[in-house]
Specification:
Length: 407
């Protein structure tokens, strides 16, 4: 009604103005649809989505004894607060709840389903040198052919190998491995599963076998027994647990639905008209340029170029090349939270520049020496100097300029 009925009025008003100026008179004939007042189910031309923000909260690493962790208990509390705000504003329960997050990070649980410590943040430096160590155990070409994932120190595989190399007792004590969105699913429903799109980012999911690469994990002395079954995006997991519903103030059954839990997969799935001749650009914590393909691209050339193949909605891989890590550099400079309507850059947000945005890619070099910088402004500054690129004299001014150009 707000679109069509108002549209009829605006068109009629403009037509009347033109007819009056021309002095010729005439008639206005409307061909209307009852969908203007009440759109029928599946009448997609008349449907629209209204997106409203209920709750916003910051998310970032917590430093403890020189290590970087995620505060997942606080994130869980913030998720519940968002659902509670919905319950306070609406009488009917939501049609469903879904979660997407960033990739690669995980929690280890014991046999009772309790966390064995706070999950590490993917920028923790314990994985430095792990890709080279894994190369000595598993040929790089075999690893790429089996998983299709680009070689980055932040990958889940290297995180687990670092735990094995350090003799971390939690790895042997663990009974359950859950990626971050799967952890929240578990706390919501009690179900222990791994959603497909995020599972493919771990570097130990075999897209050819459509399952975990158990032989690869065995060769690296990593426990495949802790990995849960993989489910597809769109799977209805279960109803929200009664104790959670009670805590947030929801009445009635609320299904929890597995989305494409890897945020990039959700972003790509939302691109209208994406087909075999299309490419996408996704700019968030990472900026990616890629295409959707029916089969992963596992050629030697793709391996040399360090391209990645990550699972998409519908089961197809989403092949892409990470072009530069944004890594929350604006947040590091303290300029990320000034506009309430804009997400603070971080692992849980995804932003795209519009056609009118000014391109600033020239000033952002691609760091090749490391993918886990302590702070991105420092990494960009040092890399820019090494690459003989414009090196900003003041990190804060540089980050503020980037933020201003892209917001």
């Amino acid at each position: 009604h707000g679109v069509l009925a108002k549209g009829y009025f605006l068109v009629a008003r403009e037509a009347f103005r033109v007819m009056k100026e021309q002095g010729v008179g005439g008639s206005l004939v409307f061909v209307a649809s009852k969908n203007a007042m009440a759109a029928s189910k599946n009448a997609s031309a008349y449907w629209r989505f209204d997106l409203r923000e209920l709750h916003r909260f910051p998310n970032g690493p917590v430093s403890v004894m020189g290590r970087q962790h995620w505060d997942v208990l606080r994130l869980w509390q913030e998720i519940k607060e968002g659902v509670a705000r919905y319950a306070r504003q609406h009488d009917a329960p939501p049609a469903g709840i879904g979660i997407d997050t960033w990739a690669v990070d995980f929690a280890l649980l014991d046999g009772a389903g309790e966390m064995l410590g706070n999950p590490y943040h993917y920028r923790d430096r314990r994985t430095e040198g792990m890709p080279e160590q894994v190369d000595g155990l598993v040929p790089r070409r075999r690893l790429y052919e089996q998983t299709g994932i680009q070689r980055l120190p932040i990958n889940t595989l290297y995180q687990l190998v670092s735990m094995r190399q350090a003799g971390d007792p939690r790895l042997d004590a663990a009974e359950i491995f859950l990626l971050i969105p799967d952890l929240f699913h578990y706390w919501m429903t009690g179900r222990i599963v791994a959603e497909y799109t995020n599972a493919t980012t771990t570097q130990f999911y075999d897209p050819g076998a459509r399952g975990w690469a158990a032989d690869l994990l065995k060769d690296l002395e990593l426990p495949a027994r802790i990995l849960p079954p993989v489910i597809s995006p769109g799977t209805i997991l279960a109803e929200l647990l009664p104790e959670v519903s009670k805590e947030v103030g929801l009445d009635g059954d609320v299904p929890v639905i597995a989305t494409a839990t890897h945020d990039t997969a959700s972003a790509v799935a939302a691109v209208p008209g994406l087909d075999a001749s299309s490419a996408y650009i996704s700019s968030g914590t990472w900026s990616l340029v890629g295409v959707e393909t029916e089969q992963p691209v596992l050629s030697e050339r793709a391996c040399e170029l360090n391209f990645t193949n990550e699972g998409g909605v519908g089961g197809g891989p989403s092949g892409s090349s990470r072009t530069w890590p944004g890594c929350g550099c604006c947040r590091s400079a303290g300029v990320g939270g000034r506009r309430k309507a804009r997400p603070t850059p971080g692992p849980s947000s995804s932003r795209r520049p519009s056609k009118q945005r000014r391109c600033v890619a020239w000033s952002i070099p691609t760091p090749r020496s490391s993918s886990i910088p302590a702070t991105c402004p420092a990494r960009f500054g040092s890399t820019a100097g090494a690459a003989d690129s414009p090196n900003p004299k003041a990190t804060e001014r540089w980050c503020a300029a980037v933020w201003k150009a892209w917001r």
